[in-house]
Sequence to fold (169 residues):
Amino acid sequence: MSIEGTAAKRLDTAATTAPASPRLRVAPPLPIRAPRPTFAAGVIVLVLIGVVGILLINTKTMEQSFKLDALRDQQTALDEEQQELNQQLIQLSSPGNLEAAARRLGLVRADNPAMIRLPDGKIIRPPTPGEGPVSVTAQPAKGDGNTDQGKTGQGNTGQGAGGQNGTGQ
Fold:
């Protein structure tokens, strides 16, 4: 067998027939659609609502911060006032001031105070009246009968021996 020219032997392809597979091809691109104006407007409105919400929250936060600062200043002032009042209370309730206040009310020191047993009320030591000089500003006792109130300059003010409001304070 001789082959002349450019002719070639043909291969037998009938014996190896495979099912024909579909040819692959490039799919056309999806059509590009411009965003709808309603969607864009919705996104813009949503962003605007978010910005306004954040501004409102910041405004309320700052307002509450100013109120908190004012309340802290007020608390500081009240704490200082309380300290001053406590200091005055300590000073006025010292033994020397209590004794001076008692002398102004006409009280004298009791040397032997009475002693009473509380459960049964038995008097262990009987009371004795105190002795000492009466203060110039002392008010006379109710049953004293002394009407010479012009010397002290107080006159009848309606105050009892208990103080301004009758409670002993």
